[in-house]
Design a protein that fits this description.
Helix content: 10-25%
Catalytic activity: a 2'-deoxyadenosine in DNA + S-adenosyl-L-methionine = an N(6)-methyl-2'-deoxyadenosine in DNA + S-adenosyl-L-homocysteine + H(+)
Keywords: Methyltransferase, S-adenosyl-L-methionine, Transferase
CATH topology of the largest domain: Rossmann fold
CATH superfamily of the largest domain: Vaccinia Virus protein VP39
Protein name: site-specific DNA-methyltransferase (adenine-specific)
Number of helices: 13
CATH class of the largest domain: Alpha Beta
Radius of gyration: 30 Å
GO molecular function: DNA binding; N-methyltransferase activity; site-specific DNA-methyltransferase (adenine-specific) activity
Strand content: 15-25%
Number of domains: 3
Distance between the termini: 46 Å
CATH architecture of the largest domain: 3-Layer(aba) Sandwich
Structural class: alpha/beta
Family: Belongs to the N(4)/N(6)-methyltransferase family.
Length: about 575
C-alpha cells in the first residue's frame, strides 16, 4: 500500500504573499542604553522593531537566517471574538494562512539546534499542530507542554479550561540540547543522608528497566545475604560489570538493614538538575493573574496590558532552550515580556510589534529593566541590577510607488543610501559601502560587488567602471539607464559588469505598497444580514456577502500576547 501524505487544507491555502524584503531604519531618539556598563556581560545590540510582523520577519531573513536559538510567539488565539459576522470556515482559513506565512520564515531563521515555542489554546491548538507538522516536518515535533494558566475553574462553564498549550518544534531534533532545570527547594529536600555517606545527601532511583535484555538478567546479593532477580517484565538497568562498579563506589542502596530491593544513590552535590516534563503548574511558572499583576506594577491598573504572560513562564522556556548570549526572537511582542525576561537573563533579543503599545508599554518597560527600576517578575530570582540596551527600528516604506501618471517609480522618500541598501537586499548582497572604492555599495563574495546609482551611465562611464573593477572581480550595476550600448552588447564588451535598470529590475519581485499583512476585519467580505422570518431560525453567516461591519476594526495579526481567558 502506498503511503499518502496527509496535509491540512483550507480556503486560500494556495495564496502566498510576495513579500517585499524591507530595510530597517534605526531611530536613535527611540533607542535606549544604560548610562554606564553594569557588568562585563551587558548586551546593547538588542532590537525592537516597529512594524508589521510578517514584513519584519522578511526583513530579518537575510541577516539572521539560521542564527536564532529560540523563537517564542504568543499569536492571537482565534477565539472568534473578532469574527461575529463571519463564517467560521472563512475566519479559520484566514488564521491558518496568516500563521503559515509567518512559520515558514521562522523556520528559516531558526538555528539547526534552535527551537520554536508557541502558546495557543484549544480553539486552534490541534490545527496548529498539523500546520507546524507540515511546515517543519512531523519529525521536528518535540512536545506539547501544558501550562496551567488559571488558579480556579470558571463558574460560568461546565468544564472550564485550566491550561494553554505550548507547542515545541525544532528544525533538527537530533541536535537539540535542552538544559536541565535547577532543583527547587522542595526537590532538594528529597535528598537525605540516612547512612551518613561522606559525599553528603542523596536520593535513590530504581535499578530496573522496562523489557528483557539477556546481559541484564543476572542475580544480585544484598549485604544481608538476600538474593534478588529482576521483577517480571523488567531487567536490571545496567550490565553486571557496571553494577559492580556502582557497588564498589558505595552507590548501591539496599535499605537500612540491607534486605530491600537495590536502588542507585544520586548525590545532591553532583546533581545537574532535573529534566523538564510537559506539565507546568502555575505554582512553578505563574498564571494569568500573576502576569496581570506584574504589568499593573509597571504601568498601573488603568494602563495595564490585558493579556500578558507571566515572566516566570518565559524564564522557564529560556532556561530550557537557551544559554547566555543566545539570540531570542518574539514577533508578537505584546507588552514586551519576552524581551524583558531575555534581557534580565543575559540573552540577546529581537522583538517585533505593530501596535501602539510598542511605544506606550514596551519601551517604558524596557527602560525600567535597563535602568534597574523593575523589581518585579524574575528580577529577584536572577539578581537583576540593570544594564545593557536596545536599538529601535522602523520598517522603511515600500520601495516602489506609482507617480501621478500611474508609472512605477522609486519612492521619493528613499535617499541614495536607502536605495543602495534596499537593492542590495533584493539582489542578495550584503550592504557594506566601501570607504575606498566609491562604486562598492555591497558584496556577495570577496570578488562580487554591487553599485547603485540613479544616473544615466554612458559607455565611457561604464568603461571606466570596468577598468576599476578589474578582470578578477565582477560588479552588478543598478542604474536608471545606460546609453550608447545595449545590455547584451555590454556583457560582451565588459564581461566583468552586469547591467540592470532601476526600477524595472525589481518590479515583478514583490507586492509593492503592501504595508499591513495583519488580519484587518474591516477589509474582509462581510455577511449581509438576512431578513428575519419568524418561522425559521437565522441562517449561519456566509462569507459571500459584500456588506461592511459598522464601527471599528479587529487587527488580529497586528501582534500582541493573547490569552483570551
Amino acid at each position: 500500500m502506498s503511503k499518502q501524505k496527509l496535509e491540512l487544507t483550507w480556503i486560500g491555502k494556495e495564496k502566498r504573499p510576495k513579500l517585499e524584503p524591507r530595510i530597517m531604519l534605526e531611530d536613535p531618539s527611540m533607542s535606549y542604553h544604560a548610562r554606564h556598563r553594569v557588568s562585563d556581560n551587558d548586551i546593547f545590540d538588542n532590537r525592537l522593531i516597529f512594524g508589521d510582523n510578517l514584513l519584519a520577519l522578511k526583513a530579518l531573513e537575510q541577516e539572521f537566517t539560521g542564527k536564532v536559538k529560540c523563537v517564542f510567539i504568543d499569536p492571537p488565539y482565534n477565539t472568534g471574538s473578532a469574527f461575529t459576522h463571519y463564517d467560521d470556515g472563512l475566519e479559520h482559513s484566514i488564521w491558518l494562512g496568516l500563521m503559515r506565512d509567518r512559520l515558514v520564515i521562522i523556520r528559516r531563521l531558526l538555528a539547526e539546534d534552535g527551537s520554536l515555542w508557541i502558546t495557543i489554546d484549544d480553539n486552534e491548538a490541534h490545527y496548529l499542530k498539523v500546520l507546524c507538522d507540515e511546515v517543519f516536518g512531523r519529525a521536528s515535533f518535540v512536545a506539547n507542554v501544558l501550562w496551567q494558566k488559571r488558579t480556579s475553574p470558571e463558574a460560568r462553564l461546565q468544564l472550564g479550561a485550566a491550561h494553554d498549550h505550548i507547542l515545541v518544534y525544532g528544525p533538527s531534533v537530533q541536535k537539540l540540547q535542552f538544559n536541565k532545570l535547577a532543583l527547587t527547594e522542595d526537590q532538594a529536600k528529597n535528598f537525605k543522608n540516612p547512612d551518613n555517606d561522606p559525599k553528603g545527601p542523596w536520593a535513590s532511583t530504581d535499578f530496573t528497566a522496562q523489557g528483557w535484555r539477556p546481559n541484564q538478567m543476572y542475580k544480585l546479593m544484598s549485604p544481608a545475604g538476600v538474593e534478588f532477580e529482576p521483577p517480571p517484565g523488567r531487567c536490571w538497568s545496567n550490565i553486571e560489570s557496571e553494577y559492580k562498579k556502582l557497588l564498589a563506589a558505595g552507590r548501591m542502596w539496599f535499605g537500612k538493614d540491607g534486605t530491600a530491593r537495590p536502588r542507585v544513590k544520586n548525590y545532591l552535590c553532583a546533581a545537574e538538575g532535573v529534566s523538564a516534563w510537559t506539565w507546568w503548574s502555575n505554582s512553578e511558572v505563574g498564571h494569568n493573574q500573576e502576569a496581570k499583576k506584574e504589568v499593573i506594577q509597571l504601568f498601573g491598573a488603568e494602563d495595564a496590558f490585558s493579556t500578558p504572560k507571566p515572566e516566570r513562564l518565559l524564564k522557564r522556556i529560556l532556561e530550557i532552550a537557551t544559554n547566555p548570549n543566545d539570540l531570542v526572537l518574539d514577533s508578537f511582542a505584546g507588552s514586551g515580556t519576552t524581551g524583558a525576561v531575555a534581557h534580565k537573563m543575559g540573552r540577546r533579543w529581537i522583538m517585533v510589534e505593530l501596535g501602539e503599545h510598542c511605544h506606550t508599554h514596551i519601551i517604558p518597560r524596557l527602560k525600567k529593566v535597563i535602568d534597574g527600576e523593575d523589581p518585579g517578575g524574575i528580577s529577584k530570582a536572577v539578581n537583576w541590577q540593570g544594564g545593557g540596551g536596545f536599538r529601535y527600528y522602523r520598517l522603511a516604506p515600500t520601495l516602489i510607488v506609482n507617480d501621478r501618471w500611474g508609472n512605477a517609480v522609486i519612492n521619493p522618500e528613499y535617499n541614495a543610501a536607502m536605495l543602495a541598501e534596499a537593492l542590495a537586499k533584493l539582489e542578495g548582497f550584503h550592504y557594506a559601502p566601501s570607504e575606498t572604492h566609491w562604486w562598492q555599495h555591497g558584496h556577495s563574495s570577496e570578488h562580487d560587488f554591487l553599485y547603485v546609482t540613479t544616473q544615466n551611465l554612458s559607455a565611457e562611464q561604464l568603461q571606466a567602471l570596468a577598468d576599476e573593477v578589474g578582470s578578477e572581480s565582477s560588479l552588478l550595476v543598478c542604474c536608471a539607464a545606460f546609453h550608447g550600448v545595449t545590455a547584451s552588447r555590454a556583457t560582451e564588451r565588459w564581461p566583468n559588469l552586469t547591467l540592470k535598470k532601476i526600477p524595472k529590475m525589481v518590479l515583478a519581485r514583490c507586492e509593492w505598497g503592501h504595508d499591513d499583512y495583519s488580519l484587518n476585519v474591516a477589509s474582509l467580505p462581510m455577511f449581509e444580514e438576512p431578513i428575519a422570518r419568524p418561522e425559521a431560525p437565522s441562517p449561519r453567516p456566509s462569507p459571500g456577502g459584500r456588506g461592511r461591519k459598522a464601527g471599528g476594526t479587529a487587527d488580529l495579526f497586528g501582534d500582541g500576547e493573547d490569552d483570551h481567558e
